[in-house]
Every structure is written in structure tokens, then in C-alpha cells.
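Colleagues,

For the teaching module next term, I've prepared a clean inverse folding example: a structure given as C-alpha cells, and then the sequence designed for it. I'd like students to try predicting residues themselves before seeing the answer, so please don't circulate the second half yet.
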């Protein structure tokens, strides 16, 4: 539950107001959001670097922050920080410049750029340069400053409550995730993430982003105890199924997945036991996009406690 309490409601409202001003500044466009328009509006500059061709990253900066740590106190070449901390993206407030690692797969640039736009929108992030690695760019990052930038990125790329409303009026299934992925132009993984977070307070829904679940296709470094890149739970799922481990769930999913190279790997009804020992029927489906397997599990039968509440 701490995940949802990470940012104070007041902070969320503040950030959301800044995102709203950006969208209004763009004339409330239709999705997908064009990040080049956002940059133009905010007068931000975008550059790319690679470890071999640092380009602009040859310059020095005086202060750099990576997650919670201020890593250098003396002027340092940006490229040295990039190499030392495996930085994938950066924001330089004094130059209003976003730098992205050109070697990161193109699909990920969109999220990384929006995260840096997030830093630029929040005046209290201005005091120093932000360097981002895989961890800080992930939505599960628990560092405040990074969680704020990620929150801003999500609100921006998914058009604030517009996406939430679309999710709540859709049937929760992978088909809807794919449709919204097409409309908003964000990756399937970030769309699945936002989808599960947006389904509302009442329905237990779980999402997993993992390697290919079939035994014959798991990578060599697969850790059976921590199989998920991301384990995403709706509010109701967190509250009712806190004892269910990601390892148990992954094994159950592996039980119905075929060894196809890509596309739909399978679907099945699974019975999950909640924290009170009661059984619930879930519909699970898994899709493999050749990088990650995306799994969505949706409770199809209301918990008996809700049925017994005696609403008219
Ligand atoms: Zn960051």
C-alpha cells in the first residue's frame, strides 16, 4: 500500500496542475502527444549522446544528482557521470536541455524524454542537474524526486484523467490495452501499467511484465524468486491479495503459456486465494511482444463480502 502513499495528494495536485497548463498551452490536442510540441512550448532543447560520441555531454556541470544522492560536488564532465552511473537520460536545468542516450532502444525514448520534461516542469527540481538510470526511470522508483518526475510523465503521456476514464469505460482485457497503446502511442508496457493503476478502487486486477514464462524460453539469468520486471496491482488487489507472491503467480501463468515466439501465449481462468483464505475466479491472458511478456489478470467474480453487503 505504501506505493500509493508515496506522493502526497497535495503534491500530485500541484504536478497535475502543471501538466494541465502544458496540455492547455498546446490547445488540448488529441492523443498521441507530440513531445516535440511540448519541447517547443517549454523552450526545451533535446540532444543525444552515446558513450563513444559524447557530443554535448563533453561539457562540465557543477552539480549532479542521481536518485537521492548528489554524486559530484566539483565541476565534472557530464560524460564521466554518464559512464560512471550508466545514465540513460539527463536534464540540465540551467541550459533547459534534455539529453538522451542514443543507444537505448527507440521505444523507450518517449518515456525517458517525458520523465525529463517532468523534471523541467517542477521548479523545486531546478537546483541541480538530474541524471537518470534504469532504476530512476522506472515507475516503481521510490525516490521522491524521481517518483514526481515519473508521475508528471504519466499524467502527460496519458492525458491526465482522459486515459483513466477510457480505461474505466473499457472491458479490462489485453485487447483494450492494445487499443489504448495504439491511441496514445506509448509502449505496451507503460500502457499496461497505467491500465492496471486506472481500473478503479473496487476490482482486483493484476499486471505482470516478465520474461517469456515458458520453461524452454526463459533467459539464463532468470530468478525464480523475483520473476517480474514489474508487478503491478490495482488498489483492490493490493488490499485483498497481499500474501500472494509474484513467484506463485508467475508459476500459475507459466502453466497456461505456450512456447510461441510472439503474440498471444495463452489465457486461462485461475483461482486465487485472498488474505482471508477465500477463493476468487480470475481471467488471465498473456501476450509476448518479443521483448517482454505482458500478463493481465482480472477478478471476474466479486468477493463474497461485497455480495453480502446488501446493497439495494
Ligand atoms: Zn529523473
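(Answer key — instructors only)
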Amino acid at each position: 500500500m505504501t506505493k500509493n502513499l508515496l506522493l502526497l495528494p497535495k503534491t500530485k495536485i500541484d504536478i497535475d496542475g502543471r501538466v494541465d497548463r502544458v496540455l492547455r498551452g498546446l490547445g488540448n490536442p488529441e492523443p498521441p502527444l507530440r513531445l516535440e510540441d511540448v519541447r517547443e512550448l517549454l523552450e526545451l532543447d533535446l540532444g543525444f549522446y552515446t558513450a563513444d560520441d559524447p557530443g554535448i555531454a563533453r561539457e562540465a556541470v557543477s552539480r549532479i544528482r542521481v536518485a537521492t544522492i548528489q554524486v559530484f560536488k566539483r565541476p565534472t564532465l557530464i560524460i564521466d557521470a554518464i559512464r560512471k552511473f550508466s545514465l540513460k537520460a539527463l536534464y540540465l536545468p540551467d541550459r533547459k536541455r534534455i539529453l538522451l542516450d542514443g543507444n537505448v532502444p527507440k521505444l523507450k525514448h518517449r518515456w525517458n524524454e517525458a520523465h525529463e520534461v517532468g523534471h523541467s516542469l517542477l521548479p523545486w527540481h531546478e537546483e541541480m542537474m538530474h541524471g537518470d538510470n534504469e532504476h530512476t526511470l522506472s515507475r516503481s522508483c521510490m525516490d521522491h524526486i524521481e517518483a514526481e518526475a515519473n508521475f508528471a510523465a504519466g499524467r502527460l503521456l496519458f492525458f491526465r484523467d482522459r486515459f483513466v476514464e477510457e480505461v474505466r469505460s473499457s472491458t479490462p482485457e489485453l485487447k483494450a490495452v492494445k487499443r489504448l497503446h495504439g491511441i496514445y502511442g506509448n509502449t505496451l508496457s507503460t500502457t499496461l501499467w497505467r491500465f492496471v493503476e486506472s481500473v478503479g478502487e473496487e476490482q482486483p486486477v493484476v499486471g505482470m511484465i516478465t520474461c517469456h514464462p515458458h520453461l524452454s524460453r526463459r533467459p539464463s539469468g532468470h530468478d525464480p524468486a523475483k520473476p517480474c520486471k514489474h508487478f503491478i496491482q490495482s488498489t483492490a488487489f493490493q488490499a485483498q491479495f497481499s500474501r500472494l507472491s509474484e513467484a506463485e503467480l508467475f508459476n500459475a501463468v507459466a502453466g497456461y503459456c505456450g512456447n510461441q515466439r510472439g503474440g498471444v501465449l495463452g489465457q486461462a481462468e485461475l483461482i486465487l486465494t485472498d488474505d482471508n483464505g477465500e477463493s476468487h475466479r480470475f481471467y488471465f491472458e498473456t501476450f509476448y511482444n518479443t521483448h517482454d511478456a505482458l500478463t493481465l489478470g482480472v477478478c471476474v467474480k466479486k468477493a463474497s463480502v461485497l455480495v453480502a453487503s446488501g446493497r439495494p
